């Protein structure tokens, strides 16, 4: 370590000798020599001076992240939607952004919504949380940058219609934690749309239902308000796949490092993914082509990440594969080996009906499509996946999620996303009601920084968990040498009702019960999705059928068919293989119907 400079000018310093001794005590030692204490005090004040210098310096907006020129001038207009136009509470802010000079027409005129944890220049970024947690004055921070994927979408001709409601700090697989209120399922008010990309999936699913309603004359779909064709979400434990599963969409978590995460709020760098959400495979493919490729800013990208000019042409590859499936005599395509992941069908909370539907549909659809064989395959370590995910990320998650800390690698964090830290009583009270899971993340981080294991600190266990990730990755890689893709459940059940909304702050006598009652539906919900966030394998939720949910409306029982999604997992960097497997499955389903 080098010391840049030492200065005797202490006029701007807030650090006194008592502060030095307090810092030493927090590290479990004492500085007993006064001269030594004076020397360390000087060095601390010098460090403080360096940080003050950086604080006063103007920030730097990287040229590639400067907001794109859009039609209508430099000012980007936006508004909060009227509640009557936002019945699902899926919109955060609405706008109408189209590039003044698009560089391609891959997404010409297509409407897209961006999850409200991803920077859109000129619009606020809410992270689904309370304004007073994001800034000292309680004003929502407005983004001075376009995230890399936002620039690429605009450049491809997309029209960004706004930002979508997301869960509070993206820390929920269900859709009731946003500070603006719950996001409702398009098919059933009061039921979860899944999270944390809740608004993104609700809006795309509603758009698909409007299209169907136009064909079958279902006027009830007109009550959705504005919808969109496509969406972008973030996925750290299943936050693209789970809401896509609940709402009957395709939601892809790409291979880790394929799509740059620059400009999005991090939960933990090793699990951060951006993914496309759409109602068709073709739309997922074109979104992936537009979004993917090295950007020179994201440390999550690896030597395997393609440069933009070398990104596979996913739409063309998918179209070519679909064409080959139509040629019954064409045997050039190899037989696809599909493995039903045994351990994934025994996770806690998995509905027997969901498990049976996925197994049955997988066998029937692939058999009908031909060019496929279905078998069972065992990866015993899959059952440890959620534990490894938790141990590898939870100890330090609050640093990235709630404190906006950089990862230690050179990275470009969104300059306007700087949550207030440390928390205070008011923050606790807000989060205790809206998303107690986030309070747990904060407490877990505090425990990790203070607790001791047999070797001296919990960080040693976090490091071991990272090593276990490599072991888990190798276990899936071995299975994917025997089969081309794994198939397993995504969410363990169909959509469920939101937990009761507390009318008053949680009382002293019922805190535990109320909190656990509200969090209980989310326990174990990501057991089949989160392991692939740490291992980096591409994974996609694929619609595979529906199951009935019975609700009471006006004193009468009503049956609603709610979507079920299965998950297809492929080899790392073989995202096109996942798309092809989904296409083959889809072809078989169509022949059955």
TrEMBL record:
Domain Amidase: 103-220, 228-579
Domain of life: Eukaryota
Gene Ontology MF annotations: catalytic activity
Protein name: Amidase signature domain-containing protein
Organism field: Microdochium trichocladiopsis
